[in-house]
Specification:
Low-confidence stretches: none
Distance between the termini: 19 Å
Radius of gyration: 20 Å
Number of strands: 19
Helix content: 25-40%
CATH superfamily of the largest domain: Metal-dependent hydrolases
Oligomer: single chain
Largest sheet: 6 strands, mixed
Number of helices: 11
Mean pLDDT: 93
Strand content: 15-25%
CATH architecture of the largest domain: Alpha-Beta Barrel
CATH class of the largest domain: Alpha Beta
């Protein structure tokens, strides 16, 4: 297969180039040249091709409104239908890979990988590991912790596992791996969408976090952590984690520590932007979340600048929840305003691939990489809003297979 006549943004930050892309057996085998007679050719005139976008902080199983999700007010069939629809919308928006940071179970990832369900490649964290009363513990205050039933549906979504003490963390991390996790997600501080804590709270001890890091290292993988405040981030860095999600209250001293230890940051501006603007009311989120989001939305943008100045690797994640997960590309629009469109694109492609440990497979357009490609009807460097308009994503390839083609 050959893709010809497009402008190519290869994900490295290099200037746009007009070049053909040659694909064989799902792999990019060459750039430039002309297709031979009889070759399969996709004419991409007027399009801009980028590497397939990567969302490093997704929750594809949080695919319905918040109250219904937590109450179990759906049948398993309805929950599965919503989740499968969200997976399809990710591809339609140009995202060929997502790292699910708490929720996706191995059955879902296998269903997508096998082609039974249309969706992006999913790197699942399995159930989030959290402490009793911490972020991720969404049970009613009137239900004892020992009776907590998370939102899990085995084989579909995993919810969270309450973990108090190093032994419980070790057991539950092993359980997450048993359920197919490719990395581990811990909650080490309070959250915006939380019911029993404050954003300033720290959660899990350094010893508890270190146990999870040890177990992940034994599997050749890593731990990422939910953390807004610097105290939680510093505990996690001291314990050896490799990535921090959100980091909305990051300061220069903590950013320098992250850079020294090569700990990446995945900002999540989209969910904070939508919550602070009260535009997720239809998702059934409590009113208190709006006020919380407003306290950190500006800090989250500043955290990106602080992290960059310190030399921290900065990825890109949306953290979007609810059924309307076709707005995943809003993250690149918001990041374009904080930095610039090229930097936003590189964060969502090459840099995310590096943070997720798949840089040898995807994230840039070069020979030897999977043919994960996204084509826009226009140039998002000139009009970043294209990132957030799924209708302008007109061609998507996943490992060389056409997943979407609505070229005009």
């Amino acid at each position: 297969m050959w893709l010809v006549n497009a402008t190519v943004l290869d994900g490295t930050g290099h200037d746009p180039a007009g070049t053909a892309i040659r694909i064989e057996d799902g792999v990019i085998t060459g750039l430039g040249g002309s297709p031979p007679s009889g070759a399969e050719v996709l004419d991409c005139a007027g399009l801009t091709i980028t590497p397939g976008l990567i969302d490093a902080h997704a929750h594809v199983t949080a695919a319905t409104d918040y109250s219904t999700y937590l109450s179990g007010g759906q049948s398993i069939a309805e929950a599965a239908a919503d989740i499968f629809a969200v997976c399809g919308r990710a591809v339609d928006a140009g995202f060929t890979t997502v790292r699910d940071t708490g929720g996706a179970d191995a059955g879902l990832t296998r269903a997508v990988a096998s082609g039974k369900v249309r969706g992006p490649r999913i790197l699942p964290s399995g159930p989030a590991i959290c402490q009793t009363g911490g972020h991720g513990h969404f049970g009613s205050a009137w239900v004892p912790a020992e009776d907590y039933a998370s939102t899990e549906v085995p084989g579909l979504r995993s919810g969270s596992l309450l973990s108090d003490g190093p032994d419980a963390v070790r057991r539950n991390v092993r359980e997450a791996f048993r359920r197919g996790a490719t990395q581990i997600k811990l909650c080490v501080g309070g959250g915006v969408i939380s019911e029993h804590d404050q954003i300033s709270d720290t959660q899990l001890t350094v010893e508890e976090i270190a146990v999870a890091v040890q177990e992940a290292a034994a599997r050749g993988t890593y731990v990422t952590v939910h953390a807004h405040n610097t105290a939680g981030i510093r505990n996690a860095v001291a314990a050896g984690v490799r990535c921090v999600e959100h980091g909305s209250l990051l300061d220069e001293e903590t950013a320098a520590l992250m850079a020294e230890r090569d700990v990446a940051l995945v900002p999540t501006l989209t969910i904070l932007h939508l919550l602070a603007a009260s535009s997720l009311a239809e998702a059934g989120l409590p009113a208190a979340t709006v006020e919380r989001a407003q306290t950190v939305v500006d800090g989250a943008k500043e955290a990106v600048r602080i992290a960059r100045a310190a030399g921290v690797r900065v990825g890109s994640g949306s953290d979007i929840v609810g059924a309307a997960q076709d707005r995943r590309g809003l993250e690149l629009v918001l990041r374009s305003a904080v930095e610039d469109p090229m930097t936003a694109l590189v964060s969502a492609t090459r840099d995310n691939a590096g943070i997720l440990g798949i840089a040898g497979e995807t994230g840039t357009i070069e020979p030897g990489k999977h043919a994960d490609l996204t084509a826009f009807a226009g140039n998002p460097l000139d009009d970043p809003e294209l990132f957030n308009r799924p209708d302008d994503v007109v061609l998507v390839l996943q490992r060389g297979t056409v997943a979407k083609d609505v070229r005009r």
